[in-house]
């Protein structure tokens, strides 16, 4: 009986692994600003970011080689996050952000492949489509942070806002959704070109994925 219950729980987690990743990303986006004020030193946001990477590995765990690649890409990022509590090495932090961007890109590629190999629109397909969009913004946030390290003052921040990962994540979401509040802006040509590229890829993704999902749904119904 206990074995059957354990198996059912395992099957449930396996079936909804993309949903768990989506929930963690949303929790990170919404919860980080509030928990950061309660728990000092960014402990909860860093914990949520680590969980995102773990669930990201789990979400694309259909093939062992994908798991190994994801672990190799995620490990430097996770190490840099937690080592920063004992060692303030900016170089290690940037290396972690670099691998974080690669990891996000890998998750995006695998989930995109997953969507385009499906024959019908399911909940998991919709969850995957949303996760890809959110991971695109996270990937670009890592890229902006890396650029600002190698080329300081690539972005302007209004008020007393300190440039950190969440601030770049905020700017990335504003860019990919083309809201353009103007409180954070690119100051260099390199930054400007990256911002334009994110905005274009974000809009193209929405157009392509919506067309694909609608087309697949209509095709399925007609059969």
Task: Describe this structure as you would to a colleague.
By secondary structure, the chain is mostly helical. It has one domain (2-222): Helix Hairpins. It has helices at 2-15, 17-38, 43-59, 64-83, 90-116, 123-150, 165-176, 189-222, and strands spanning 155-157, 184-186. Strands 1-2 form a two-stranded antiparallel sheet. It is globular, with a radius of gyration of 19 Å. The model has no long low-confidence stretch (mean pLDDT 87).
Instruction: Determine the strand fraction and express it as a percent band.
Output: under 5%
Q: What is the class in the CATH system?
A: Mainly Alpha
Major sheet attributes: 2 strands, antiparallel
- The helix count comes to 8
What level of helicity do the residues show? over 70%
Structure in a nutshell:
By secondary structure, this protein is mainly alpha-helical.
